[in-house]
Amino acid sequence: MTTRCGFVALIGEPNAGKSTLTNHMVGAKVSIVTHKVQTTRARIRGVAIEGDAQIVFVDTPGLFQPRRRLDRAMVAAAWGGAADADIIVLLIEAHRGITEGVERILEGLGDLPQSRHIALAINKIDRVEAPQLLELTKNLNDRFAFEKTFLISAEKGYGTNDLRAWLAETLPEGPWLYPEDQIADLPMRMIAAEITREKLTLRLHQELPYQLTVETENWEERKDGSARIDQVIYVMRDGHKGIVLGKKGETIKAISKLAREELEEFLGRRIHLFLQIKVRPNWLEESERYSEMGLEFKDGN
Ligand SMILES: Nc1nc2c(ncn2[C@@H]2O[C@H](COP(=O)(O)OP(=O)(O)OP(=O)(O)O)[C@@H](O)[C@H]2O)c(=O)[nH]1
Ligand SMILES: [Mg+2]
Fold it and tell me: Quick one: where's region G5 (predicted)?
């Protein structure tokens, strides 16, 4: 039997639904999702199988005009994911259409090596009417020669079977890269940190989610089958620490409970989660914070 295998990079503006689509395709939550922009910070690999093909989805951070060093590292990681992939799928939000950000991404696509397959997926079609979709499809294809266009809803699962089938038949022939039962390629300590960051992002407001990072410092297996996980939340100011703690520690307690419950479900066993908050005004300039996130820290960014 000939098998197929390769990388499919999902790129697009922040909030386009890349992580939602990754999780839908994999059939499990491997990448965190929130209603806020810039949720994903690094490349997250999720693995799906379709017939004789193993599809390695590469969820990427959203593409936007970067300002901070972290933003630049995120955008670089996203374009890097696209450059390394066999197939690139550009996700566009149906109801937002061709924004300035989309225009910039289309320009960027033109600079990639010619050998890439590049497809368009218009996502969130559950939010618009058919005539609007037809027009958007036409306008986007006038601007870039996409190999295929798919109309999907990553959340509702509309159109995703067609997309999956096309990806499977378009990937190059080759041996599978991962064991059949592997769904993610990210260290467990990082997945655990991401789950906590998701709960923080959902609970905290304004700029705060963008000014913190979470790291798993210690993971201890216990004889009774449970595990103790120690994580640090780095924030930039004393005031932020107070907000994350909340009145009488209520906020951090609620976040910790939600994160622990999700971890227990993901790992199928009891977890003891300990969260500590550290004030680190300069964490955005520390290379170690970037390597913990799976990002490159360069003088340039
Ligand atoms: N209505 C609707 N909402 C969707 C759909 N797909 C994703 N969403 C929502 O869009 C929001 C953003 O989804 P994400 O998957 O986090 O988007 P992303 O592209 O990974 O965003 P970043 O990581 O910030 O770049 C979430 O609230 C999702 O529930 C869809 O098909 N329909
Ligand atoms: Mg994401």
Answer: 152-154
